Amino acid sequence: MGEIFVLALGSALWPLLIAVTIVALRSPNPPKLLSFFLAGSLLTTISIGVVIVLALDDTALVNRSRSTYDPVVYFTAAALMLIVALVLARLPERPKPERQQSGQGKDSWAERAMTRGAPIAFVFGILLNILPGVLPFVALKNIAELGLGTTEVIVTVAGFYLIMFLLVEVPLGAYLFAPERTAALTGRFNSWLSENGRRVGAWLCALIGVLLIVRGIFALD
């Protein structure tokens, strides 16, 4: 369970999820977009996650005594995380946003989708999470190995994804209780992420990749 918790925290730092959250926080009505995006995301991830865990039960990929495929899963996930880290590190720095002043420039696809309204944010949350990410899939495989009952699987998968979406849930809750202060804090945080987000994301993905390699080595024993 400890490893599943760590994987949930790592999943919360997925660069695309952070980017979507930043876009929502920059919108005129962040709480509405965040709540609809979160609803679509949790509906999709929990439903698909439970199906995956139940489908993996007693397959060749999952063996409660010792999984032969565990090292393969960990090393594959590590390779994908290192590739993401390399891509993020090699991306050119984005110029400072001048389009707000000049009215020129193009929005990213995430910005265009998220700012079209709450229903689109809900649909975007569904589409973005139809396929589980690298770390969530590893976590779902680990949950399947626990041999839980159906109700316990649902609770565990739901708990995993509630942790994964903390970066959406925390600002949403803050907006409900202290909207003005939250708006000021998120504005400064967004400015910092705009300048450092890709570099931080690259280092985080690289670190997670290395940890997965270490975990895969231990799984060989």
Sheet with most strands:
none
Order of helices and strands: HHHHHHHHHHH
Which of globular, elongated, flat, extended, rod-shaped describes the shape?
A: globular
How many structural domains does the protein architecture include?
1
Number of strands: 0
Rg (C-alpha, Å): 19 Å
What integer is the average pLDDT? 79
What is the count of helical runs?
11
- Spatial gap, N to C terminus: 20 Å
Oligomer: single chain
Percentage of β-strand residues: under 5%
Runs in which pLDDT lies below 50 for 5 or more consecutive residues are: 98-105
Q: From the helix content, strand content and strand pairing, which structural class follows?
A: mainly alpha
The helix content is over 70%
Keywords for this entry:
221 residues, globular
Describe this structure in words.
The protein is mainly alpha-helical. The chain has helices at 2-12, 15-26, 30-56, 70-90, 99-102, 109-114, 118-128, 134-145, 150-164, 166-177, 179-219. It has one domain. Helices cover 78% and strands 0% of the residues. The radius of gyration is 19 Å and the shape is globular.
